[in-house]
């Protein structure tokens, strides 16, 4: 974990950078004029610099030198909120927006390469593999694009409602939808290979490896799927309400829910290893590596005697925790990095999203 950062995009227009080893605040990156909804980084192997790309409500993406805090480029062109972004390498990034378009950028020069049109609703999710990018939209379709030309190679049609999650390994495209189904598609032919059924409501979270898919739904369940046979290997009743975030490795699944719980699961047995954090109102975001996990959650804030009837005083706070855990220990070490009293804004998307969906902070562990 040497030379490792934690980067958090917030609704107060700021990007906060912390040292993951010490938990100490490093710097704030200022420049966005609205909440930051998406971020990702890439490390330049030649210069040894971390390049960060961010996007959000101000309709612009920014390219930062994370090492120095310098904002190198502002990428303008979208007509609405940037809802998602992915970086291919230290030269190319793709943004998806509520304006229904994708934009492919040269982040080294700060220039636009392609505008990808075709979706009829907000672009909700992206994933990249090689020279291809896939997009999922509230128009109930997904599309596969060639990054070099900007051309649409396939349109994946079959869902009956908005697509909220997408995963792509270069061979298979996987989509999760409000219709409660997961569909697996061939990136080569565009054909639907399988429809995975079992969730009973929105499938909002997917993580794909070559042979394993993990899905999380608003039904509170995690499911582990064999991508060779398309069979469900594990059904885990993980949370009392929606699964709001998940991440897995070869042995473990870490999940957060709107029940305010963070839980670590054995991926083979489907059993609970440990619960993390004190109870919260909701968990917004998690990210882990081998030994650490970052958790962003919301907790109630005790009100003073003069605050109880003041509607302008927040009754909750956003808490960012860094957990240093060891599977051989009974307890994890928890460090609170920062707290804030501001609530996240609610999403109100006219293209068909679920109202009152929180505008969750974006988090990524940046590791050298």
UniProtKB/TrEMBL annotation:
Residues 351-368 have a biased composition (Polar residues). This is Uncharacterized protein. Residues 339-368 are annotated as: Disordered. WD repeats lie at residues 29-74, 75-115, 116-155, 156-195, 196-235, 236-275. The keyword Repeat applies. The keyword Ion transport does not apply. It comes from the Eukaryota. PROSITE patterns: WD_REPEATS_1, WD_REPEATS_2, WD_REPEATS_REGION. InterPro entries: WD40/YVTN_repeat-like_dom_sf, WD40_PAC1, WD40_repeat_CS, WD40_repeat_dom_sf, WD40_rpt. It comes from Mucor velutinosus. Keywords: Repeat, WD repeat.
